[in-house]
Amino acid sequence: MSLYAVEATNIVRTFGDDNFRALDNVTLRVPMGEVFGLLGPNGSGKTTMIRILSTVLSPTEGVATVAGFDVVKHPDDVRVNIGLAGQFAAVDDNLTGFENLRMVGLLNHMDKARVVRRARELLEEFGIADFGNRLARTYSGGMRRRLDLAAALVANPPILFLDEPTTGLDPQSRQDLWNIIESLVEGGTTVLLTTQYLEEADRLCKQLVVLDHGKIIAEGTSAELKSQLGNTVLVLTFATTSESEKAVSLIADLSTKPANHEGLVVELTVDNGPAAAADALRRIDGAHLVLTGLQLREPSLDDVFLSLTGHKAEEPAVLDGAPQGRRSRRKVQA
Ligand SMILES: Nc1ncnc2c1ncn2[C@@H]1O[C@H](COP(=O)(O)OP(=O)(O)O)[C@@H](O)[C@H]1O
Ligand SMILES: [Mg+2]
Question: Which of 48, 192, 314 to mutate to test the pocket of ligand 1 (most atoms within 8 A of CB)?
C-alpha cells in the first residue's frame, strides 16, 4: 500500500461541449489515519473529486490512487477499501434502519450472521438502536445522516469519504457527527471530508486543501493558513456607515492586506495588534469619528477564505455581473 490513503495528481475533470473545468489540476495527498479536509463553497468541485476517487466518474486528466489502487485501472479494489456517505443520504426510506444496514452488508457479500451482528453494533454505536425497527422515513435529518454513515461502515472500510456530512444539520446533530468522526479516526480510519464550513474544517481536519472554482487556492494545516494572514484581526465598530467608510481609508496602510468592511464594522489583519490599535485610535480620534467598539481577535479560517477569494466560503461564489448577495461583504482595496 502506498504511504498515502489517497494520492491524486494533477486531476482535471471537464464537463460539456465547452469543456467546463470542474476540477483544474488538483493534487491531493491524504496521509493514512487522519481527517483530511477539502474545503470550498458550492460548485467548487468537491463532489466531483469525491466521485472520481470513489470510481463513479473518471478523471479527464491526471492519476489517482486510493489505498494504493488506481481508480481507473482497478476500481473494484478501490471500492472494497472505501465507504462513502454524504449530504444526500443514500438511505432507503421504505426499509427500517436495521434493514438498510443489512442490505448494504449483503450487497457487500458479507455472511448473514456477521451482517446482523454488525448492523446491531452500528445502530447501538450511533445512538439509533431504539429506532432500528422503524422505517427510515420516520427518522429526523440527524438520524438519517447517522444511518447513512453507519451504512458506509458496515463492511469496515479503512478509508471513508464524507461529502458534506453535516450540511443542513442542526448544531446538536452536527456535534454528534463530529464526535462520531473523531472516534472513527481514533480507531484508525482515514477520512477525506468535504465541507463548506470553516469551523468544521478547523475542528476536525489535520490538513486541508481549499478549493475555489476547481482550483486549489491554499493548503496546509488550519494554523498555517491562518498564520499567512498576520497574527491578529483588529475589529473596529463605528456609530454610522459613513464613519466606517471614512475609517477604511484612514487606517488601510496599517496592514498589507485590504481592509474588510461590512456595515458599521471594519476589520484589518495586522502583525502587531496593540500597536496597530493604538495607531488606529489616534487617527480615528484625529478625524473626529465616533468609535463604538474595538476588539483584537485571532484570525479564523473565514478570514483566510475571504482574503484569498474575496467571497465567503459559506455562500455561493458571485459570478461576474450577477447581483451581490444582500449580506455579502465587500473587499475594500487599500
Ligand atoms: N455531471 C455534470 N455535468 C455538468 N456539470 C457538472 C456535473 N457535475 C458537476 N458539474 C459542475 O461542476 C462544478 C463543480 O460541481 P461539484 O463538484 O458538485 O461542486 P461542489 O460539490 O463543490 O458543490 C459545478 O459548476 C457543477 O455545476
Ligand atoms: Mg457537493
Answer: 48
